Structures are given as C-alpha cells and as structure tokens.
Amino acid sequence: MTQRRLQSTARRGNHRGGTWVGNHVTLVALTVLVVAIALVVVIDKTSDKGPRPSSIPVQSESTQLRYLGVYEPGTPNTYAGVEQFARAVGRQPNLVSYYSGWGEEFRKQFAETAASHGATTIVQVDPTNISLAKIAAGMYDPYLTSFADDIAAFGHPIVISFGHEMNGFWETWGYTHTPPADFVAAWHHIVTLFRDRGADNVTWLWQVNSSSSQTGPVRDWWPGSKYVNWVGVSGYYYVPGNTFNNVFTPVISAIRKFTQDPLLIAETGVGPQAGQSRGIENLFAGVRTKHYLGLVWFDQHSYGGLYKGEDWRLEGNSAALTTFRNALKG
Known about the structure:
Layout (H helix, E strand, L loop, with lengths): L19 H26 L21 E5 L8 H10 L5 E7 L6 H9 L3 E7 L5 H5 L4 H14 L3 E5 L17 H17 L5 E8 L20 E8 L6 H4 L1 H7 L7 E8 L5 H14 L4 E5 L19 H12 L1
Parallel strand pairs: 1-2, 1-8, 2-3, 3-4, 4-5, 5-6, 6-7, 7-8
Helix pairs in contact: 5-6, 9-10
C-alpha cells in the first residue's frame, strides 16, 4: 500500500551574469525566496487543508502481514482473552480492539497494557441512539474534549473508529436511520476537535461493512481523506462458498473509486459452516495478495442474527488453529 507522506517543493532560480555584488545579492535573494516558499508549502501540507499522516506505520509492499489484530470478549475490562489468543496462535497481536459506548471514558489502563505487549488499541466509538447532528453542532463537546485530552496525554498511538459499519441498517447511526450528511458532519467535527486538542497520536479508521442488498452506497458516508488515515472493512465467511472475492472485493472496489488510503480488514472471522481451514487460508491469501494492512480477528461465538450458531473462536478447534498459525507464517 502507498503511505501518505508529507512533501515539500521548492523552485530553482537561474543565476545570470552581472557584477559580482549584483550576482551575490541576487543569489541571496533567490535563496531566501526558495526557503520561504518551502516553508509555506510545508506549513500548508501539515494544516487541516491536507491529508494527515497516520500515527502508526502502514504496510510495505512485501507479503508480510503487518498487522494481526483481535477482538476478545471481556475487553477492555480484562486483557486475559488477548493473552490466551496470543498463546494459541503463536504471535502477539499488535492491534487490539474494544467497543466504547457513547459517553464512556477512554480506557487508559487497557491501552497501557496493550502497549506493554507491543499492541496498539483500536477504540470503536459507537454513538448508539445519539443525534449525529447534535454531535456536529458541538452539543457533546465537553465529553469529546475530555476524551481527546485523555488520549493526547496517553501519548502512545491509538486508532479510533467512529460509528463503524455506518453503511449497514443495523446501527442507529447508519443506513436508513441517519442521513449520511449528518454522519460526515459529525466525523469532521470530532476529528477537528481532537486535532485542536493536540491528540495527534490518533489514526482515524473509517470502517464500513461488506456489501449486500441491505447496505447503502459507501461513497455517501465518506468524510474525505484529510479526515481519514485508514479505511476499514468488516466481513465474515459464514456460508459455504464464501471467498475473499465475494465477501470483500465488491465493497473494496467501490471504495477504491474515491480513495487509495491504506486498508485494514478491521473485523472478520471464518465460521465452521463456511469451512474454517479453507476460509482462513483464503482470507490470509486475499490480504497478502493486495498488500492490505492486515486483519482483526473477531474471536467470539455468535449467538444470534445473520450469523446465528457461528463460532469464530479458534481455541478448541485444532484444525482451524493449525491453519491459522501456518497462515500467519506466510
């Protein structure tokens, strides 16, 4: 994947004939002009008018899986599930995810524990039953300011995803429930507030769900690259025949029409009904082939809804676990 980099440009002046003093003065003047132009460009590139670089590295063009992430039940109250997952798969995850309800404070202790294990925390901020128009209007700024200040003080890299899977109908902030314009306005307001509070350690993850007949056009919910660092996609293998191409490719193709931002498979799993060993191999192959950032495994049993009866957990399934460990090695 391409990494967003800050760039500066400078003009070169031509030095023409004349007296030594005249030439010298001209050279000095041109030098000052070049420096001034370069400074203006650098300042402009780091302002809110242009893209912000991610606070953590992105994937190189190698086939190495840059990020292995996991969500474990019980987070952020405990890190035990993450440690168990790490022992099972033979690798410490370097992304760990937890879900934060609107109004909940930043769970610093969990993030510190993750950092001590070499992992960056993904905070999934869910505005359930909250007016996005009111967020955009600043009516929740006291909460957001406190949250931003806590993260800025934390100092270590943090990934924040606000209102994930907004293109789906199942969330109060999403498709058919909230106008996309309200979501975009709320996203802009939140990102701007965090930046104004000095929370430059945040990588902003815009996360959509895989496409189906029950999801809306992802373009409608796009806040623009200057407000986003990473793009995330949620998608699961839950029936026979699911592959990377039919789970992820349709929505990723739609996303690539308006952004080339680094992409993370931000929530995924392969259930027994889909054929776990085959599906795991296919999932890893898809991520590597396209040089995506990596994946976040949803290590939990699904008890209802579309995925009723699916168990995404690897522990206790020796065949799936062996396949997963081998897939990690590439």
